[in-house]
Amino acid sequence: MKEKLNMERLGNPWGPSPVLERQRERIISEADGIGSEKARQLLKIKIADWIGVPLEQIGVSRGSSEIIELICQEMLANQAVVMPVPTYFGLTDSLKEAGSELIEVPAGTGSQFVLNEQLAEELIITCQENNAHLWLCSPNNPTGSVMESALIEEIVTSLSNQLVIVDEAYLEYIDPKNNSSAAHLVGQHPNLIVTKTLSKAYALPDLRMGIMIADPQVAAYTQSRVSQSSPEDYIKARYAIDDQEHILKFAQWIKTEVARLIAGIKILVDIEASVLSATGVMILKHKVESLYQLLKEMGIKSRDMNNEPGIEGERYVRVGLQKPELNGQFLHALASLG
Prior knowledge:
Blueprint: E1 5-6, H1 19-22, H2 24-32, H3 36-51, E2 58-62, H4 64-75, E3 80-85, H5 89-97, E4 101-106, H6 117-130, E5 133-137, H7 149-158, E6 164-167, E7 192-197, E8 209-213, H8 216-225, H9 231-242, H10 244-266, E9 271-273, E10 282-286, H11 291-297, E11 300-301, E12 303-304, E13 317-319, H12 324-335
Parallel strand pairs: 1-11, 3-4, 3-5, 5-6, 6-7
Antiparallel strand pairs: 2-8, 7-8, 9-10, 10-13, 12-13
């Protein structure tokens, strides 16, 4: 059946800051008079101010995937890495390519996929027993669960001899000012690396702009090993970050729309979902049949998660928040299943 609705798409459905279009000529003019190195430095200054960390802790790359691959290949190759599952498949794929040994720690079942104190303790113990590093996504993809910053600090402190990587690709969905970012712990914990992206909340996947916050030596080394973007792309990223009004409105909308979507799902007796999602990225399943197939037959696109670590064989699909009208159509489709 022809696709009618794409619920697989992740990112800000409202698009990037309108400032980019309004200031398009100014951005082009500025790019003509500046080199990539200077434009990148100005972006790093903006990022440091936005997150509230020292400039020397910042690195930027052509997409967060470039930083992820560098960490895997040069810092974690052929080493043991603990990951709570389910988690972002791109991380597990990159670690496997680097020859890393993945040690999976289940992060709940059913509707209770939660990054809580019990899980934090399990992660610490598993890392210590296996002399392993840790990679954590918070907020998590695909469940939308969030680990409190105090628990992340406890983990990083307890694993001072191991590398801890915290992926915050979706943090701006719920904390656009980064008040709870693990990046604030980097100064006291050189074993911590935080990664971010402008592809999700800022809706700039075409810019491929990844961010690392790490110990200054790690950040400088990473910066020397990653690709450079064009001056125009760096300037666009800077202008987008500067428009905090746009991202604050998005975060407020996320809070309201996620609550509406989850409330609608909770009343469906045949649907089970990760209802603790804070971002609208979630996994759900039909209690009897393959939800992926049922949705596909209705022309609704989702991501099949049936083979993902931690939820293998459980028939889950992943969906992301879309505009209200489309979310309403999705809820109506789910309600028609039982």
